[in-house]
C-alpha cells in the first residue's frame, strides 16, 4: 500500500449519500477535533485494541525520523474506548488528508455509553501499510517517541495528550500509560502544556 492513502479513502463512497455519519476517534481525534461536527459522544468499538505501532512521517515525525502514533489492532473480546463525532460526508475530505499517512477508512459498529449503537467509520493503519512500524520493545518505543518531532509538534505531546484524554473518559490502558510513564522518565513535560 502507498504511504499516502488519500486517494484510496476517497474511493470509499459508502456514506456519500447520507446526511451525516458517525466517526470514531481513538488517537488524536479524541483531543484534537479541528473539524466541524454536529455532535460529540464517548463511544467504544469491540474487537480492537489501541497500539502505538504506526509510524508518523507527516505529523509527529519526519520521513528520516518517524514518530509513533496510535492505530487499532484486532483482538477478539477487546474493547477500545474513544470519542465519536457526528459529521457530514464533506468533512471526510480534510480528514482523509489528515489521516493520509497509511490510514484507511473502515466501517465499524459503535456503542455509546447509554447502550445505543450506530454504524460509523474509523481510520485504521493496518500492518500492510508502508508506514507501519509494528510492535517493539517498550523502552525502544518510548525512546523513539521522546526523540521524534514533526510539523504537528513533539511526538511526546501526542502520547501525553492521549493519556489525559483517556483519563477524562475514565479509561486507563496499560499500553498507553506504560509508554507515557517511560517517556516522562526520558523527557519530563511541563505540567501546564496544553494540546495544540
What does this structure look like?
The chain has helices at residues 6-10, 28-31, 92-98, 138-147, 155-168, 174-186; strands spanning 21-25, 39-56, 67-87, 104-112, 117-124, 149-150, 153-154. It is globular, with a radius of gyration of 16 Å. A hairpin with a 4-residue loop joins strand 4 (104-112) and strand 5 (117-124). It has 196 residues and is an alpha+beta fold. A five-stranded mixed barrel has the order 1-3-2-4-5. Helix 5 packs across helix 6 (174-186).
Low-confidence stretches: 189-196
Topology, number of strands:
7
Number of helices: 6
**Mean pLDDT score, rounded?**
90
Distance between the termini: 30 Å
Helix content: 25-40%
The helix/strand class is alpha+beta
Write down the Rg: 16 Å
Residue share in β-strands: 25-35%
User: Largest sheet at a glance?
Assistant: 5 strands, mixed, barrel
Dominant shape: globular
Secondary-structure element string: HEHEEHEEHEEHH
**If strands are numbered along the chain, what order do they take across the biggest sheet?**
1-3-2-4-5
Chart the SSEs and their pairings.
Blueprint: H1 6-10, E1 21-25, H2 28-31, E2 39-56, E3 67-87, H3 92-98, E4 104-112, E5 117-124, H4 138-147, E6 149-150, E7 153-154, H5 155-168, H6 174-186
Parallel strand pairs: 1-5
Antiparallel strand pairs: 1-3, 2-3, 2-4, 4-5, 6-7
Helix pairs in contact: 4-6, 5-6
Quick description:
This protein has 196 residues and is an alpha+beta fold. It has six helices and seven strands; from the N terminus they run H-E-H-E-E-H-E-E-H-E-E-H-H. Helix content is 27%, strand content 33%.
